[in-house]
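Hi V.,

Quick status before I head out on leave. The structure for the redesign project is tokenized and pasted below; the design run finished overnight.
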């Protein structure tokens, strides 16, 4: 058995859950690599990544390179004398970095590879209406999420589950999977499976303003999946139009009401406590939403102060 000396690379909250599990299982983490601090918010104050916060709290050696090929960074990385690198939600690594440790560099990805390679696997699994997903560990190669797979574990996606809930579920599943992967590497018992590409592979594209916009012409289930797949972050959005005004509205939670109606598609229908939008195969009832400059609120709270005309429209 070879004692592992691990360098961990990651940035968001998801990576913190995995790093914490590695530390709690008494593996030696000789260094942590995370993104450089970024200005955020109105005051543009420098914001630390979630992984940096954790590393500082636990007195771990920390590197924050802006350029992964920079000679100073490579020298610092080499001096940590790691024999394994673990990557979770970081960025693409140059070959000089992933080839450095003797036992290789493996990544934990939040999907059942080869499906949902890319930046937003948790969101897209829900948006596309999948009923199951999972996590995969694999050795990194020169492309994105294509390397030889070590382990994968699957879990069900419930019909009302949102991206935030699935994120937490996969973080727990991923933590256990990483620990099992470390044990195999430590014992020299790893066997890998090559990913097989095929025409049906689904991709986890980067999320942007366009692909987060609700298209009210789609079916109720497609709209419901988009909204929960983007909740609580980065959030699905649309425009509410009424009385010559337009608001950019974020939707966090909705419910499908299956009924035949004669409303126009996109028409907003309100009662004292409910907001519904007409779609081709029913109604979408809005449970929680956010208007510009306001906090997230429940539909009935909005209706206490705002009323919509019969011509109100969601676009």
């Amino acid at each position: 058995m070879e004692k592992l000396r691990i360098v961990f690379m990651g940035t968001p909250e998801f990576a913190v859950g995995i790093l914490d599990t590695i530390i709690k299982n008494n593996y030696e983490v000789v260094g942590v690599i995370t993104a450089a601090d970024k200005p955020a918010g109105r005051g543009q104050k420098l914001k630390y990544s979630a992984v940096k916060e954790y590393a500082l709290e636990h007195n771990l050696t920390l590197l924050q390179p802006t350029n992964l090929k920079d000679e100073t960074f490579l020298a610092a990385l080499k001096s940590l004398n790691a024999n394994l690198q673990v990557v979770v939600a970081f960025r693409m690594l140059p070959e000089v970095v992933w080839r450095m440790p003797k036992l290789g560099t493996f990544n934990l990805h939040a999907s059942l590879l080869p499906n949902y390679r890319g930046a937003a696997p948790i969101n897209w699994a829900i948006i596309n209406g999948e009923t199951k997903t999972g996590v995969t560990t694999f050795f990194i190669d020169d492309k994105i999420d294509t390397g030889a797979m070590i382990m994968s574990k699957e879990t069900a996606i419930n019909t009302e589950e949102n991206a935030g809930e699935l994120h937490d579920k996969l973080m727990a599943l991923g933590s256990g999977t990483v620990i099992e992967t470390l044990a195999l590497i430590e014992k020299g018992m790893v066997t890998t499976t090559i990913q097989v590409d095929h025409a049906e592979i689904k991709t986890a594209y980067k999320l942007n303003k366009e692909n987060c916009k609700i298209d009210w012409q789609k079916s109720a289930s497609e709209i419901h999946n988009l909204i929960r797949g983007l909740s609580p972050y980065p959030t699905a959005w649309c425009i509410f139009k009424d009385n010559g005004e337009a608001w950019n509205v974020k939707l966090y939670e909705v419910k499908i009401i299956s009924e035949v109606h004669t409303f126009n598609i996109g028409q907003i229908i309100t009662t004292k406590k409910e907001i519904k939008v007409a779609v081709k195969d029913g109604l979408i009832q809005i449970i929680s939403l956010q208007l510009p400059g306001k906090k997230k609120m429940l539909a009935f709270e909005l209706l206490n102060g705002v009323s919509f005309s019969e011509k109100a429209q969601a676009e």
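Above is the designed sequence. The chain has two domains: 5-187, 220-314.

G. will cover questions while I'm gone.

Best,
W.
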